[in-house]
Amino acid sequence: MRRGAFSKGFIYLLLIAGGILMLLPFVWMISTSLKAPNQVMTLPPIWLPHPIEWSNYLHAWHTAPFARYLFNSIFVAALSTLGVLLTTILAAYAFSQINFYGRDVVFSILLGTMMVPGEILLIPNFVTLVKLGWIDHYEALTVPWMASVFAIFLLRQFFLSIPKELSYAAKMDGCSDFKYLWLIMVPISKPALITIALLQVIGSWNSFLWPLIVTNSMTMRTMPVGLMAFSSEAGTEYNLLMVAATMVILPMIILFIILQKYIIEGVTRAGIKG
Amino acid sequence: MIERRTWKKTLRALLYLAPALALIIVFDVYPIIKSFLISFYTRYNYFTDVVYARGIDNYLSIFNDPEFWLSLRNTAIFVLGVVPASICLSLAVAVLLNQKIRFRGLLRTIYFIPFVTSVVAVSVVWRWIFHSQYGLLNAALGLVGISSIHWLTDPNWAMPALIILAIWKGLGYNIVIFLAGLQNIDSNYYRAARIDGASPWQRFIHITVPMLSGTTLFVSIIAMINAFKVFDEIYALFNGYPGPVNSAETVVYYIYNKFYVQNQYGIASAASYVLFLIIFVLTLIQLKVGGQKKERTRSKKLATGGGR
Amino acid sequence: MKLTLNQLTLRFSDVTAVDHLSCTVNDGEFVSLLGPSGCGKSSTLFMLAGLYQPTEGELFFDDTKVNTVEPEHREIGMVFQNYALYPHMSVRKNIMFPLKMKKVSRKEANARAVEIAELVKIESLLERKPAQLSGGQQQRVAIARALVKHPKLLLLDEPLSNLDARLRINMRAEIKRIQRQVGITTIFVTHDQEEALSISDRILLMNQGRFQQFDHPQDVYLHPTNRFVAEFLGNPPINLLPVNFSEGTARLVQSDKQANSYLGVRPEHLAVVNDGANALRGRSESIESVGRDHVLTVAIQNQKVRILIDADQPIKAGDMVYVRPKPDRAYLFDNEGNTITAQWNGGLTDD
Predict the structure, then answer these.
(1) Residue C158, SS3?
(2) From the candidates C13, C73, C89, C101, which should be mutated to test the interface with A, based on the most A CB atoms within 10 A?
(3) What sections of the sequence does the record tag as coiled-coil (chain C) (predicted)?
């Protein structure tokens, strides 16, 4: 028994030490973001800033158009998520409820596209967007991301788990197929839809290479792109840089902590689209 | 089920599929093909989409480009540095988390947090941690008597810095997948092994590792694919440059550079197809080797009368 | 509403699920579709519902042919084996759903939902979600939802098979009560003969997609039209003895090969008697008591028969006994399983 208690203590020690290592960069980030300039570059490092410089946030906010970046990020995430939910619900319905010619072939091709690394798509998509005149417009940031094979796959699996009798019952009750989808299947699938929405929001919020390439002007930048631009300007003002990083990182951490059940579920279900 | 296929149903399905299919065809399927074609365009005006000449020159030129070979070499070092270490660490954490301990959910959450954060933003944070003079890491190393390392400016240390960041960032994802795999192992195996007098380590080696081989295969493939595609970290860690004297230039950075900075679309496409091919072949090899290993453990289990 | 099936047939690519089925169900009648699994009873029900389209034949509701009428326009209510309640809606919303689809005003829909909830005795559960209900309660909700739009036909697809034994008997009576009260024509699919025998006005027996018999419960039990019906009904099952039937007398034979027909007698229609006239001689093997019944097994040559006997009958294992069928309660079937209608004078011998 004593040996068990000892090894259990050891497990806790390892896990907590690891946990601290995982969190330390965030703690350090927030700590630095609240420091007066003379406390940033010190040896040994100062952990608790004194005084706490909340004004760093205002300062950074005014030095670069973060309000605009924030709006863009939220707007783009919201729009692409709505788009994904809509296209996914419709497509998953077709794949799970309608027996049509070529269904399995089309579905296999879609799954196949998941294997191809996104970098291959970059150049032709850029050319397409140039031709559509969408470069440096919100369309470029949202429309290409409004369909997700992974999301369709996830929701199709969920739809398939709904008993067929439910659709028969709805039919008896005088409910059309289209109404059945929106009044019955969609509400039942709320957990899967939340998972899909969250993964989409996180993916959209964090994406960098794509918005970097399809936007040119400052007014179209999203938070990560804005952060990198700010990083070139702010240079070594690490307290301000950490303010900017905090603004990019913290919203997703909060979102994750509130709704982690859905995110972990989605991630374990089939892995994130890489 | 027993419901028949009809053209009417096919038409109806197409209506439902139209929005998703249109987007996927335009932005996923077409680019896969187009990218392949572009890689053979040697003279090409992307704006008018006029091709003046085709050939394999793009492929020849990247294979004759020492920078491409350097990026391949760097990518390989990165993959080898990240994937095995990340898998071992995450498996260890997952096994520990899978014990009957308190705060399991909280700990899992903590380990997962880096995964949901922006790569660019955490890379900026790590740039500060790696700071050669006032960085947290060097301060910590100083405590144990190691003199400061120029993580981001010394070509020998740029890649290790990148690897540390990547392991930290991706650990939580692997842990969650491993935990799901561990929970699928029937606890009766452990009870039986305990009755047979197997030590915790023996139980890990003889039950956990073989029963988890499918999950490990999945995790290693995903980790490898993601490692091959590293870009955002480099861009942010070295502030838009691929490290001191290109010491952290990877293949995707090379592609980005050829495409976006130098506007050499054909070469960039050729490089991206080479990358795809490498990932594809390595995935196949992993599947094959992993499959054989599974086969072996299965026959071993059969021989000892175990297995489900 | 009167229901007429005329040569109704349903074929899937290579299987004939329902094969030229014809019958007429009267207004207000409670009819069970009974048969082993895969006999086509559910397929028949789904055709009545409009969920499957018949390949051949005609289906009439009163005098209207409804072959191609969509389910939602047939004015039917249906209850499924797994109840198929909408899990995200309260009981009240579930019951109101069909009315909402018909664009009945909220107020009226609510009033009708409450009324029907009282009929099925779930008025206190209206705000619950289906997951918070027991199986029997879910069953009642499903019936309420099926009845709330005042359909002309009620279809029940194995509604009791997910309930435990005791509840099943309660719900059986409840379904019967509700059906009587509403007076609706009802088709009830089941594979449980006891259920069908106790609940129905008439039973339609099916096997391998084909019509077997359509009659009142007592009649299908006591006057089976063929060997399948005789064998399918009854517990313990009917005794079947290979016999040679000629000139009004059935003679027991050793094997199926020598038999030109089979004699079927239910265990309760065999009696142990003292004389050998028109009786078979055998040795008592065992007596087992199944609840209040006592089942005596008798070996007659190489055949075994089971007999229901009174508890006080003084028979021990090993006794030699004579066994005689009750008059009019023994059936002769030919090798194809059809009932031999030729006059049988009860003559029976075992040598």
Answers:
(1) coil
(2) C101
(3) none
**From A43, A125, A238, residue closest to B27, measured CB to CB:** A125
Residue position matching structure tokens 């009167």: C2
Q: C80 to chain A: nearest residue by CA?
A: A165
Q: So where are chain A's domains?
A: 1-53, 64-237+244-270
Instruction: Domain of residue B5: give its range.
Output: 1-27
Predicted confidence (pLDDT) at residue A106 exceeds the cutoff of 60: yes
Q: How far apart are CA C12 and CA B185, in angstroms?
A: 42
The residue ranges of chain C whose pLDDT is under 70 are: 342-343, 351
Contact partners, residue C262, CB within 8 Å, separation at least 6? C227, C240, C241, C242, C243, C332, C333
Q: In what order do the strands lie in the sheet with C249-252?
A: C330-334, C261-265, C239-246, C249-252, C347-349
Alpha carbon distance B136, C300 (integer Å): 97
CA distances from residue C2 to C28, C63, C186, C204, C237 in whole angstroms, order as listed: 8, 8, 10, 15, 34
Same domain, B18 and B158: no
Q: Are residues B85 and B221 in the same domain?
A: yes
**Bridge partner residues of A193 (DSSP):** none
Q: How far apart are CA A67 and CA A65, in angstroms?
A: 5
Name every chain B residue with its beta carbon within 8 A of the beta carbon of A11.
Answer: 96, 99, 101
CA–CA distances in Å: residue B165 to residues A25, A100, B122, B134, B171: 10, 48, 9, 18, 10
Please report residues of C whose CB lies closer than 8 A to that of A188: 86-88
Query: For residue B40, is it within any domain?
Result: no
Chain centroid to CA B307:
32
Give B51-94 pLDDT, tens digit per residue.
Answer: 888 888 999 999 999 999 999 999 999 999 999 999 999 999 99
Domains of chain C by start residue, with CATH: 3-228 (3.40.50.300), 236-349 (2.40.50.140)
Closest to A213 (Cα-Cα) out of C15, B259, B31: B259
Q: Cα–Cα distance between A222 and A230 in angstroms, integer?
A: 12
Contacts of A176 in chain C (CB under 8 A): 72
Cα-Cα-Cα-Cα dihedral sign, residues A203, A209, A214, A220: positive
- Asked if residue B19 belongs to a domain, the reply is yes
State how far the Cα of C97 lies from the Cα of C109, in Å rounded to an integer.
9
Dist CA A27 CA A224 (whole Å): 20
Within a domain: residue B173?
Answer: yes
Tokens of C140: 């009642």
The Cα B178–Cα B175 span in angstroms is 5
**C166 C-beta neighbours (distance < 10 Å), count:** 9
User: Which segments in chain B show pLDDT lower than 50?
Assistant: 1, 298-308
Shared-domain flag, residues B251 and B131: yes
> How many domains does chain B divide into?
2
**Alpha helices by DSSP H, chain B:** 7-24, 30-38, 57-63, 66-97, 104-112, 119-129, 136-143, 155-183, 187-195, 200-203, 209-211, 213-228, 232-237, 251-256, 265-303
8 Å CB contact of B134 and A122: no
Tokens of C266: 């239910």
- Of all residues in chain A, the one with the smallest CA distance to C96 is A173
Instruction: For residue range A40-50, list pLDDT tens digits in order.
Output: 888 788 888 88
- Residue carrying the six token digits 């956990």: B208
**CATH number of B275's domain:** 1.10.3720.10
Task: Give me the CATH topology for the region A64-237+244-270.
Answer: MetI-like fold (1.10.3720)
Same domain assignment for residues B96 and B244: yes
Q: How far is CA C161 from the centre of its chain?
A: 13
Write out chain B residues lying below 8 Å of A124, CB-based.
Answer: 30-31, 34-35, 38
- Please tell me the distance from the alpha carbon of residue A99 to that of residue A97, in angstroms, as a whole number: 7
Residue A151 has pLDDT above 70, yes or no: yes
